[in-house]
Amino acid sequence: MDHFEELKEELLAAPLNNGHPFRTGTLGTVGLDMMARLRTIVLRKADPDLNLTFYTDFRSKKIIHIKENPKVSLLLYHPAKKLQLKVEGLAVIKKDTASLTELWQNMKDHNKRDYTTALAPGSEISGEDSVEYLDSENFLCMVILEPFKIEYLKLGSPHHTRIRFSKKKAGHWVSDFLVP
Questions:
Q1: CA separation (Å) from 69 to 21, 38, 49, 85?
Q2: Residues with Cβ < 8 Å from 46, sequence gap 6 or more?
Q3: What is the pLDDT of residue 96?
Q4: What is the pTM assigned to this prediction?
């Protein structure tokens, strides 16, 4: 299997398998304050064009940062395969009712709580038991990361392999080997 097919196979498998190492990754954003902000996200969907979807609260800081600067990075690591992927792309916020209504209806109740807090994520509270939840409103949204570059790094012996894949148009990627 070639390197691009390997990374594609792993990205497509991640949202379908709770135990897959790429199911969670570190998302990096940079807002107007020019400070890099990192947080863990859960991949919920990957499509054949390698667009990657995650869910979040519409009031979260990551949404503010994406609105200020839609260029984001996602770092993924597979320890068993010693494979790291660094995905760079544009983040698109989806808050349309049709997509989210079906998603909300099919979501487990305990997961819905994450999107129904009375206060926005990151707001100060008096203690861990003082989070209030709303019954009739939610702040769920989707973010789709549309990649334009993916760096593949495979650690191995006798040497490591590092390749930059750049998207030239839909479904067409070019590659360049890099010094690991």
A1: 27, 14, 22, 22
A2: 11, 12, 14, 15, 52, 53
A3: 81
A4: 0.94
